[in-house]
């Protein structure tokens, strides 16, 4: 079939519209961001028609993107894997030659590069919770950190929680996928579930709702569980809460990087807390929680169900126990063999 001319911008727009029903909103934004770099490269190279792409030009993009973004191998792989999917979809609409996607080179990762070890240690998490319990009881940061550490919730799941989905008498919360009102879950309908909560978590939640929560509804008339004075807390807000409370200067009142706390921008400005080398993301807190549960001998099936992930993903990306730790945990079952 002859190729039909199309600009890079239009091709990316068609791709994102096609992907809208397949990907969670956060993943869709990630694809949009990665392909934005490809559009920028096309503009630099004066490529106005996707028909002009060749394997050699795609290789040049890879080298340009690696240098332009100072990308680590894992980041380069993510970039090129997304481009390959885009090129494959573009071939299906006669925008590029068939099989051009096979010429998109993506680096291979070692097992170590394919997993991430950044996480919050149990001791640090408990100290953070202790500090919040004493000085910021039932604050928005206390609620968010506790829901991630004790319930293993994703950032987007916390954003999606509503008042009507919290059941204090049953000590549980319900997560619901509502993409039509801008609160999708990462696993969509597979992310919908009920989660049990312990007494202390419910006490914190109850105090938040009675004394601290800004009385807000969102643009769809729903009452979010976690709010700000502007409405429903957004993913970036949740992220900033976690980065701010995981800085050692916040909960230990000391800096492991020999900075003067009063003069450090990451310490004095909560919005810049991510600049602290020791601050952690919500994902790192969640990974630490999952690893802690496994280290406490909770069954793998329980952990994967509570964290809403498959056992395979659990083992590959979240279980950070050392091989020796796993051996020692299995030792307790040797008498039954």
Q: Please, what is the CATH homologous superfamily of the largest domain? A: Intergrase catalytic core
CATH architecture of the largest domain: Orthogonal Bundle
The overall pLDDT, averaged over residues, is 89
Query: SS-based structural class?
Result: mainly alpha
N-to-C terminal Cα separation, in Å?
A: 64 Å
Q: Helix proportion of residues, in percent?
A: 40-55%
Question: Class of the largest domain, according to the CATH hierarchy?
Answer: Mainly Alpha
**How many strands, what sense, and barrel or not for the largest sheet?**
3 strands, antiparallel
Q: Can you put this structure into words, describing what you see?
A:
The model has no long low-confidence stretch (mean pLDDT 89). This protein has 15 helices and five strands. With 337 residues, it is mainly alpha-helical. The longest helix has 20 residues, at 25-44. It is globular and about 65 Å long. InterPro entries: CB, DNA_brk_join_enz, Integrase-like_cat_sf, Integrase_recombinase_N. GO terms for molecular function: DNA binding. Keywords: DNA recombination, DNA-binding.
Briefly summarize what is shown.
The protein is mainly alpha-helical and 337 residues long. The chain has helices at 8-19, 25-44, 55-69, 73-92, 122-135, 140-151, 155-160, 199-212, 235-245, 248-251, 265-268, 282-295, 300-307, 311-318, 323-331, and strands spanning 166-167, 172-175, 193-196, 227-228, 231-232. It has 15 helices and five strands.
